[in-house]
Amino acid sequence: VSSGQQQSAAIARALATDPAIILADEPTGNLDSRSAENVLNIFEQLAVQGKTILIVTHDPSITQRTDQTIILSDGEIIDQAVAMALPYLSHPQMLIATHQAEKQEFNPLDVILRQGESVDHFFMIESGAVEIVVNNDQSDEMSLACLGTGQFFGEVELTQGGQSIASVRAAQGGAKVALLPKDKFFKLIESSPLTRRTIQEVASTRQSEHHRRKPDR
Questions:
Q1: Do 87 and 80 touch, CB atoms closer than 8 A?
Q2: Burial class (CB in 10 A: 0-12, 13-18, 19+), 68
Q3: Helix locations, 52-180, DSSP H
Q4: Torsion sign (Cα): 107, 86, 53, 72
Q5: What is the value of pTM for the model shown?
Q6: In angstroms, how far is CA 148 from the centroid of its own chain?
Q7: Residue 78 in contact with residue 124, Cβ under 8 Å?
Q8: Closest CA to 168 of 131, 142, 134, 140
Q9: Which domains does the chain have, with CATH numbers?
Q10: DSSP code for 68
Q11: Model confidence over 56-102: pLDDT tens digits?
């Protein structure tokens, strides 16, 4: 009996007891692609039925199919806001950012960043949402965008210089934000060329969108 067949049999025995919680350690590690797909489909069906499935894996294709992902580095949990906002950092780099970021909670409509202010942090949204708004000289306000969990802001000013091009406030449901000091931010992206390039591309796109949509003076 092959190791893959043994693993399939072990999974079948475990599921036969109809457990409420299933802990699977590398459940597809020794399986061929077809068998692995069958196992994952079964797990997804069980999750729909209300079962809790906990999977330990190093396979990114599995993590893409989960409802929630927890990343560990050296036995420590990486902050989800960091993992989602800066996915191209290595896990050790993510852990550094996790230790360096400061958490702040904002009530609905609280101003997080005001247009024209200096930007001293890279902001990562952990939960809730924020609204990006701009004002013209007549104080008319326009909403440019709403950013949610896993998104970020502050990158335009940090990478291109200048004061804040817009105001950012918590949306109606409030927001929890992780703030990474700009010196720590610069150090991290300099050590990760792919992260730096991705952030710069987002900043350029948002800057262009801002110029296109901002209200006339």
A1: no
A2: exposed
A3: 60-63, 80-85, 91-100, 155-160
A4: negative
A5: 0.81
A6: 10
A7: no
A8: 131
A9: 3-69 (3.40.50.300), 97-213 (2.60.120.10)
A10: -
A11: 988 888 888 888 889 999 999 999 999 999 999 999 999 999 999 99
Distance CA 91, CA 204 (A): 26
pLDDT score of 1 more than 50: no
Residues 6+ apart with CB under 8 A from 30: 2, 3, 4, 6, 7
Beta-bridge partners for 53 = 22
Residue 64 corresponds to which tokens in the numbers above? Answer: 């893409």
Which residue reads 């796109």 in tokens?
205
Q: How far apart are CA 202 and CA 124, in angstroms?
A: 14
Q: Which residue has the higher pLDDT, 141 or 147?
A: 147
Closest CA to 3 of 25, 22, 29: 29
Quote the tokens at residue 34.
Answer: 């077809």
Integer Rg of the chain from CA: 22
